[in-house]
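Sat 14:20. Reprocessing the chain from the morning session after the first attempt stalled halfway. Input below, unchanged.
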Amino acid sequence: MSYSVGQVAGFAGVTVRTLHHYDDIGLLVPSERSHAGHRRYSDADLDRLQQILFYRELGFPLDEVAALLDDPGADPRAHLRRQHELLTARIEKLQKMAAAVEQAMEARTMGINLTPEEKFEVFGDKDPEQYAQEAEERWGGTEAYAESQRRAARYTKDDWKRMQAEVADWGERYDALMAAGGAPTSPAAMDMAEEHRRHICGWFYDCPYEMHQGLAEMYVADERFKAFYDSMRPGLAEHLRDAIRANAARHAS
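Finished this time. Tokens:
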């Protein structure tokens, strides 16, 4: 029995575009094609997709997932054991986060106008308190940090969800730009970089081009920021850094 790309997307909770991308890069090539040339997926293909999604959920980049799954010496049971260990570690981390949220019910250390439950709902498996403390250590004495805190204190849950929706939409469009082969120095990429800068200005603090370039370097140097942008598309962090540089140069001329 085989399944269409639409059926598989529905089973797995992914987009058809994602499956097309996996096919294009050779990560998940459907076993069959219909007479009309449409993709058809076998049960073995679905098993592989499950493995891919497990590793993606655990934060592995696509090239590492491919290397793991295509290792001729790999035992399928070894994959399952590895994933079980990683998932168990994640569960323990989430349990600790949940406990921390409960303890922080009366605290507003971040200055965000959300209840702890709302923070957890909006930020998911991210720990906002951790980043708030680090942000204060890095930039606590700057006007940008003070302005960011003033604005954040006024935001509601709907504000944060709207902000995240903007980021998700921007990420999908940047993914499409890279998929189409757009260079970082192309007008379209520079426009995306400018939109990124304006998003920071609109939501957090004034971000001139020099500061934006400094942030861009951090997006590549700091593994957590790099993982965030590369989760939208592998290589996006470096592509964005180069686009931000090009955009700054464009506006300097």
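The longest strand covers residues 39-41.
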